[in-house]
Specification:
10 helices, 8 strands, binds S-adenosylmethionine, globular, 23% strand
């Protein structure tokens, strides 16, 4: 089958539908379709959360965790704020955020995979949080109005996008001026070419589609962010890292073209 952006997105959707079903049917674990490495090192998933956070969550939310960091640990969340989690999976970061913003705030989870949305909704109900809203859709076209969100978080999802430029532009659109992002993602060192990234792991496994640090910084600047920081936290492959990406939407965020990000996104994915 020809590798088009649509086919690739469908491959991603099928892989994470299988991960969600593995949790629902008690088959979860590395090899079940998750973003896991098989060398025993905890570079993805629940081990990246504090034991105290895990113990206060439904078991299925913890088991479904497929991230490469803990964005709720870096995003500053205040009472009453609106948070959006891009690619919310089994809902772990939405539930943690909902508790942080309290009953006067709300936490949206956006995901394209029905099986993940069903799992997340069940987990939020079990966790007893009532200020979560799960939306079906793609992160390249966020189904929320402009300037409606205070904080965007995301955990190991932007690398899976077939159009990173669209994601960064959409993040700037839905954030209020001065809004913040706190994102965990896989990020490559700048000298690693897209084909070298692809040699290190599959697109659906969160490796081949990773942006480099420079591509992230240039793309976020072009989308209208400043105070950008990309911090490597742990290795996930040779010269590729779990990273925390933080930035603030500029007050006058002007939308511009993103040639470098577009180039990287297509080179890494198709
Ligand atoms: C690696 S998992 C991470 C899930 C969750 N953030 C976590 O930390 O456990 C990727 C998730 O992103 C979703 N996803 C991937 N690409 C997407 C896209 N373009 N739009 C919306 N959801 C997407 C998948 O369905 C899956 O639930």
């Amino acid at each position: 089958m020809e590798t088009t952006a649509e086919n690739l997105r469908e491959e991603v959707r099928q892989r994470y539908a299988a991960s969600a079903l593995a949790v629902t049917t008690g088959q979860a674990g590395c090899g079940s379709g998750s973003c896991c490495q098989d060398d025993g090192a905890p570079v993805f998933g629940e081990a990246l959360y504090e034991a105290e956070q895990r113990s206060a969550l439904p078991g299925a939310a913890v088991l479904a965790s497929l991230g490469c960091g803990n964005p709720t640990a870096v995003a500053e969340l205040r009472e009453g704020e609106t948070v959006l989690d891009l690619g919310s999976g089994g809902g772990i970061d939405v539930i943690l955020s909902a508790r942080r913003v309290g009953p006067g705030g709300r936490a949206y989870g956006l995901d394209m995979t029905d099986e993940m949305l069903a799992l997340a909704q069940a987990n939020a109900a079990e966790a007893g949080v009532s200020n979560t809203i799960f939306l079906k859709g793609v992160i390249e076209e966020i189904p929320l109005p402009a300037a409606s969100v205070d904080v965007i978080i995301s955990n190991c999802v932007i690398n899976l996008s077939v159009d990173k430029a669209a994601v960064l532009t959409e993040m700037a659109r839905v954030l209020r001026p001065g809004g913040r992002i706190g994102i965990s993602d896989v990020v490559a060192e700048d000298d690693l070419t897209p084909s070298q990234r692809a040699e290190r792991g599959a697109f659906t496994g969160c490796i081949a589609g990773a942006l480099s640090r420079d591509e992230y910084e240039v793309g976020l600047t072009a989308a209208g962010f400043d105070e950008i920081e990309v911090t490597f936290t742990h290795n996930v492959a040779d010269r590729m890292h779990g990273a925390i990406v933080t930035a603030v939407k500029t007050r006058e965020a002007e939308q511009r073209g993103l040639p470098i990000v577009r180039q990287a996104a297509s080179a890494g994915c198709c």
